[in-house]
Structures are given as structure tokens and as C-alpha cells.
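Protein in question passed on here:
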Amino acid sequence: MGSIFEIINDAAQAYKGVIPEDRWQEPYMSLEHLIREIDQGVCFWGYEEDGNLMGVMGIQDKGEVTLIRHSYVRTRLRNRGIGTMLLKFLEAMTEKPILIGTWADAIWAVRFYEKNGCRLVSTEDKNRLLGKYWIIPERQVETSVVLAGGWREKVK
């Protein structure tokens, strides 16, 4: 769990000064928060080379949908396809529609998911989906977007 914690907090430095100041904290994700996420069903998968964990991404079954959660690649290893490999691996694990939440101002994250076939949902759908499938503060709902992949029909 230490390596997951380390990767998340290293990679999340990209958010500092980008996401709303009131949503930033040090560390970005505490160890207690990470443990709580795992206890709530987020299963982390990683990409490893030569015994070194380089990136992590979580998947969470929420009944009729699957959430992709906490996608992070070590800062020094970005833009090498690690995130795409992890995303494709997790997408292959489910037949359900996939939902991904991220910060609206994290343009690089939004573009990454769009490049990998996901699409932004409307603001109305975003608010409904975040309220239904995530446990996050209202302020985070206001400053986030949701992307969808694998939609066979509209998720209600």
C-alpha cells in the first residue's frame, strides 16, 4: 500500500494550483483516505517494470456501472503509455458502462480519457451521477466532470 500512496501523492502534485485551492491538501490523499477507499471497494491495479510500480488505477463495481478511480502515474514516467495500458486493462475487466470522475480544470486528464474513447456527460448527468455513485463533498461535485465509456444505454 505504501507504493500506491507514494504514486498517488507524487502524481497529484500536478493538481496543485490547478484545482480549487479549497480542495487541495497535503498530502493530497492521506493514508487513512486510501484505506477507506479500499475498504469501500476500490481495487487498485498497477503497472510494474523491473519490480518497480510505475502507475496505479482503481476500479470499483457500483452495481449497474463500473467506476475508474484514482488514476496516477509517477510524474517522471508520464507520457509513456502507462495510463493507457492500465485503463485498457481495467476496461477489459467489465461489461458494464464505465464512469470516470475528474477535476474539470485538470484538462490533461479530461483529454487523456477522451483520447481513450470516453466522452464528457452533460452537467445535469454529471451532477446526478456524482450524487448516485460517488461519496464526495458538494464543492467537489461543483468542480468536477464525469466521462463515460462503454455506454450501451443511458445510465439512470
User: Anything to note?
Assistant: The domain at 2-149 is CATH 3.40.630.30 (Aminopeptidase). Residues 15 and 106 are 7 Å apart (CA to CA).
